Amino acid sequence: MKRAHQRSHIGIWLVLTPAMAAIIWLAVNLRPSVPINPSLPSALVDEVSDVP
Amino acid sequence: MSHDYQGVQWTPFKVRYDRWMLLGIGLYLSAFILVTSLTSPAGESFTPIQLLIRATGTLAFGLLTFILMIGPLARLTPRFKPFLYNRRHLGVTTFLIALVHAGLVLLWYHGFSDLNPLVSLFVSNPRYGSLAGFPFESLGFVALLIMFLMAATSHDFWNANLGPGLWKAIHMGVYAAYGLLVAHVALGAIQFEKDPAYVVILSAGAGLVAGLHIITGFMAFKRVRGAGIDGWLQVARATDIPDTGARIVRPAKGEAIAVFRQGDDIFAVSNVCRHQGGPLGEGKIVDDCITCPWHGFQYRMVDGCSPPPYTEKISTYATRIVDGKVYVDPKPNPPGTRQEPSKIGTNG
């Protein structure tokens, strides 16, 4: 790889790595006990909500 | 490398590789559907489409994670170089699997809406301002668009017409796509899967990819040697350069230099392949030609010219051996210039 590409390559990963870590950490720690995401299929919401 | 379109040039190795790839994909999808069906709690079964959505989604994410690890792993061990050579096939296949996943999601969750399914995907859940309940499907859709752009321009036709610099810049978009997919999984599947294994797998995959890229990225910059003598860079002891392999040196200015040994002959050329900027010094000599590890582009050692009918040329460099140590002149010769090799045992 050219020097410029190598620099941008490392730069991208130095930004992307903490961003990915933060989103995973937030997603895990802020998730509700019952999913509230309207994008989720209702069958899955029912399943984790223990709705018969 | 031509500006005209040419079909994919199949080789027996590529055919074998693709057969194993398709077999692996078939086995994964079958195993996922079978195991999920058998382990679902009584009375809670998934429809075949839901099973396929999950199977293709996990497969596409897993494959992209593996694809992104191939490059740095190939720098750490030559065992991964065959994967590097055919990474493009795996990438296009991953896009197609992701496309099936997205198509099934649109059909199953948005196909019965009064709205256009694509519009429904973006407006049915308006919680864009909140992390909890974020419409994660939109993240996957943007990542799919980036993967489409990459798959559509993956052929050498586009590389030749766009130029290696712009082509490479477009294809580095895969990193953004991967970041979006990590967020897509974290804000989607992780929100309703109670099993901690999902969090562990996602974190381990993303962590491995990021860690490998950062480590090998800094390793590449460390390949700097001392000033040597008379402004020439010291490379290594001649016998420490692997036969038909190379050592890479990086001058203070300019691109890196790959110093190859074939038997008693020492040659030096630019480390940057004219095709896609691949690291030639990580390749080896095949049929008396330096062969790029990325896609097999070749250059004659003595003058840096691709063998006919190809016309690419790279810079050559003068070398010399003093007290058994190889030195290289950091000033490049014009691309395609003949440069006689230094010979071990006769130059010092």
Model description:
The complex is a heterodimer of chains A (52) and B (348). Chain A has two helices and no strands. Chain A is mainly alpha-helical and 52 residues long. The mean pLDDT of chain A is 76. Chain B is α+β, with helices and mostly antiparallel strands and 348 residues long. In chain B, the strands form three sheets. In chain B, strands 2, 3, 4, 8 and 11 form a five-stranded antiparallel β-sheet that branches. In chain B, a hairpin with a 2-residue loop joins strand 3 (257-262) and strand 4. In chain B, helix 2 (48-76) runs antiparallel to helix 4 (87-110), helix 4 runs antiparallel to helix 6 and helix 6 (136-152) packs antiparallel against helix 9. The radius of gyration of chain B is 24 Å and the shape is elongated. The two termini of chain B are 40 Å apart. The model of chain B has no long low-confidence stretch (mean pLDDT 87). Classes of the chains: A mainly alpha (52), B alpha+beta (348). At the A-B interface, helix 1 and helix 2 of A face helix 9, helix 10 and helix 11 of B.
Summary, kept brief:
Chain A has helices at 3-29, 42-48.
Topology, pairings included?
The complex is a heterodimer of chains A (52) and B (348).
Chain A: H1 3-29, H2 42-48
Chain B: H1 12-39, H2 48-76, H3 81-85, H4 87-110, H5 117-123, H6 136-152, H7 156-162, H8 164-171, H9 173-187, H10 189-192, H11 196-221, E1 233-237, E2 246-249, E3 257-262, E4 265-270, E5 284-286, E6 289-291, E7 298-300, E8 316-317, E9 319-322, E10 325-328, E11 342-343
Antiparallel strand pairs in B: 1-10, 2-3, 3-4, 4-8, 4-11, 5-6, 6-7, 9-10
Helix pairs in contact in B: 1-2, 2-4, 2-11, 4-5, 4-6, 6-9, 7-8
